[in-house]
Amino acid sequence: MADRSRSRQAYFKSKRAASLLTEFDPRTVPGHVAVIMDGNGRWAKKRGLPHVAGHSAGARALREVINAAVELEISYLTVYSFSSENWTRPAEEVSGLMSLFAEVLERELANLQKERIRLAVVGELDGLPARTREVFDRAIASTADNHVMTLVVALNYGGRDEIVRATRSLAADAASGALDPAAIDEDLFSSRLYTAEIPDPDLLIRTSGELRISNFLLWQIAYSELWVTSTLWPDFDRNDLLRAVVDYQKRTRRFGGR
Q1: Catalytic residue of the set 67, 86, 146, 215
Q2: How far apart are CA 122 and CA 91, in angstroms?
Q3: DSSP letter (8 states) at residue 184
Q4: Same structural domain for residues 55 and 174?
Q5: Could you give the CA distance from residue 40 to residue 50 in angstroms, rounded to a whole number?
Q6: In this structure, are 189 and 107 located in the same domain?
Q7: Are 103 and 130 a contacting pair, CB within 8 Å?
Q8: Starting at the edge strand that comes first in sequence, how are the strands of the sheet with 203-206 ordered?
Q9: pLDDT at 256 (0 to 100)
């Protein structure tokens, strides 16, 4: 505990972060933080750069946030990297993104192993290009025994699609007689989602100032605390994550109660 505290102080060493760290309570850290990483395209456009440059800068921001989440002792970090609707973007951008996913994961795998981070993916992986799928499959297998934090990548993911798939699964079991429809409850429904073995997010962060959920974890975020910042994702850093967590710790979660 003391070692982690010293490590945290060394990592969050700027004046801004040091001030926030005095308000941070390691006893009430959100167990699961989910992030809608938005603003890569606008970041690139502001600088007269192609979209892929924004995505590359976003990948660098992700590495910093992953390391910061480890320092804050967050157990699960879920990031929305590519939605099922993103396939409608220009083909060149989509192709570049798929290649970037594979390249970044191959480059960052050593850091995941060093920090003992387990990788998990939620979404329809069968729809990915072969190389991207292979890189993720290898990384998932090689990090399976890591236990410090689980990094969940939402890839080719859509919240509505996830709910439809779960419903079809339950309906098929009911139609075959293997399941009594009266037995379906929230826990059973949750067990058919991509996130079956992952706790619901405590905190949902959205960057770039947009005030929408964008079809992300629709079932799972029913009682998540929301935190929105105007900061574009490539500019989001360790201090921003710390600020979001400290703000979360000041709230009282009531889950529909008083």
Answers
A1: 86
A2: 23
A3: -
A4: no
A5: 10
A6: no
A7: no
A8: 117-122, 149-157, 76-83, 32-36, 203-206, 225-228
A9: 76
pLDDT at 257: 66
Instruction: Give the DSSP per-residue string, 227-252.
Output: EE-SS-GGG--HHHHHHHHHHHHTS-
The residue ranges of the chain whose pLDDT is under 70 are 1, 257-258
For 138, other C-beta atoms within 10 Å of its C-beta total 14
Other C-beta atoms lying within 10 Å of the C-beta of residue 117: 22
Q: Judge contact between 170 and 146, C-beta under 8 A.
A: no
pLDDT score at 1: 62
Q: Are residues 65 and 175 in the same domain?
A: no
The C-alpha atoms of residue 211 and residue 229 are separated, in whole angstroms, by 10
Beta carbons of 143 and 113 less than 8 angstroms apart: yes
- Which residue among the candidates 3, 25, 38, 145 is catalytic per the annotation? 38
Is 254 domain-assigned?
Answer: no
- The verdict on residue 39 lying in a domain is yes
Q: For the chain, what is the domain count?
A: 2
Instruction: Please return the burial class of 229, using the count of CB atoms within 10 Å of its CB with bins 0-12, 13-18 and 19+.
Output: middle
Q: Is 86 labeled as catalytic in the residue annotation?
A: yes
> Considering Cα of 210, then 212, then 216, then 220, what sign does the dihedral take?
positive
Same domain, 33 and 111: yes
**Residue 38 and residue 149 share a domain:** yes
Domain residues for 43? 27-157
